[in-house]
Amino acid sequence: MRISQAEIALVRCVEAGLTVFLHSQPGTGKTKLVERIARASGVECRALSLALMQPEDIRVPVPTAAGLSWRYADILPREGRGILFLDEFPQAHESVQSVFGQLLYQGRLDEYELPAGWAVVCAGNRLEDRAAAHAIPTQIRNRVVHLQLEPSLEDWLQYDPEVLPRVRIERWPERKLEDGRPHPLMAAIWKTRPQTLSTPSNWRDLLAWPSPRTLSLASAYLATRPELDEIDWRVVGGLIGEPAAAELRTYAELRHELPTLEEVMEGRADASKVTDPVARWVAAYSLAEEAVREGEPAMAAVLDFCRPWGSVIEAALFAHVVRRGAAMGLKVYQWRCVQRLAVHLDQTGIVPVAAR
Q: How far is residue 306's CA from residue 270's CA, in Å, rounded to a whole number?
């Protein structure tokens, strides 16, 4: 990814509440990228060089009358807005890396909580760059978006220190992005090619791979991006790995060839023309997800549209639409079209709803 692309990806991740980890060879411009985004956004960039730090530089235990407490370094932000830039992360000792692990994912460090207006960005060189980098622990790798930066002569020729990036951080989330409902595309791919989202056997050697945590983060990020472009897919790849992201992208492109919710509600869609099993799963989950947000008439139209595809898909849709938390799940289950589907599934014996 070029620096000009990474600027856009970084802003999108910060606005979504994700932590970014920039990887590249020395001299690519990682530090300058973060500083320029902060300047363009009108916020502070507070940089920590982790290669020079020890765990006690971040926090130290302090005895109190109530027991042991922690005292945190003054350099950690307490108010305002800005980017906390953890530079030279791989060069830090593993004990220092581990101290920041919780901060990267949850925005917390034991008793310390990162203010809502602050984002965390990490950067460092790779092992193959021979820049005194250490291997990043797997639990930390699995909590961030990994963006691989490539040197670009074209970007360098266009560089002007007085001209700030055209992108800037406009929205500051209240908390870190921690979880998200399984995205319809992921639900569809799980039904047809589950190995795509399974954790690979060589996951210890990878920067990014599919896991329940990264799949949840990717689902939550996709939910914030109604229109996906190349940079979005690079972000998803930085969470779940490029192979899984490429397969997911194929399903997303397939969705554009299938009937829309508007066509289904207006009766202009023909279910018999969707013959590919994969396409049926993609259409069913995507249409149902949109219909839940639109209301009962939309859901009734979707269930009628999907009925010719068989009870297996109907049962999967029923589970998908009612498992949405106590409040929303109960609301959806009270829709008459969903209750009719429950009775139908109970009568066919596919899902013994009444027995539950």
A: 10
Residue 213's nearest CA partner among 297, 268, 141 is 141
- As given in the structure block, the two tokens for residue 126 are 């790779």
Q: For residue 269, what are its two tokens? A: 């869609």
**Helix, strand or coil for residue 119?**
strand
Q: How far is CA 290 from CA 285, 293, 329, in A?
A: 9, 5, 15
Q: Specify the DSSP class assigned to residue 45.
A: E
Dmax (CA) of the chain: 73
Of the pLDDT bands very low, low, confident and very high (cuts 50, 70, 90), residue 113 is very high
**CA 339 to CA 128: how far, in whole Å?**
58
Beta bridge pairs of residue 148:
23
Residue type, 352: P
The domain 3-174 is classified under which CATH number: 1.10.132.30, 3.30.470.30, 3.40.47.10, 3.40.50.300?
3.40.50.300
The pTM assigned to this predicted structure is 0.88
Secondary structure letter of residue 129 according to DSSP: G
Distances (CA, A) of 194 to 31, 149, 182: 39, 30, 13
Q: What share of the chain in percent tops pLDDT 70? A: 96
Instruction: Please tell me the number of Cα atoms within 13 Å of 90 on its side-chain side.
Output: 24
Q: Which amino acid is at 336?
A: R
Average pLDDT over every residue of 60-81: 87
Give long-range contacts, CB 8 A cutoff, 24+ apart: 255-263.
255/185, 255/282, 255/283, 255/286, 258/282, 258/283, 258/286, 259/283, 259/287, 259/305, 261/287, 261/290, 261/291, 261/294, 261/298, 261/301, 261/302
**What's the half-sphere exposure (Cβ side, CA atoms, 13 Å) at 323?**
8
pLDDT of residue 353: 53
Coil vs helix vs strand at 39: helix
- Chain-centre distance for alpha carbon 342: 33
Pairing of strands 20-23, 118-124: parallel
Half-sphere exposure of 143 (CA within 13 A, CB side): 20
Q: What is the CA radius of gyration of the chain?
A: 24
| Pairwise CA distance, residues 77 & 84, whole Å | 8
- What single letter denotes the amino acid at residue 96? V
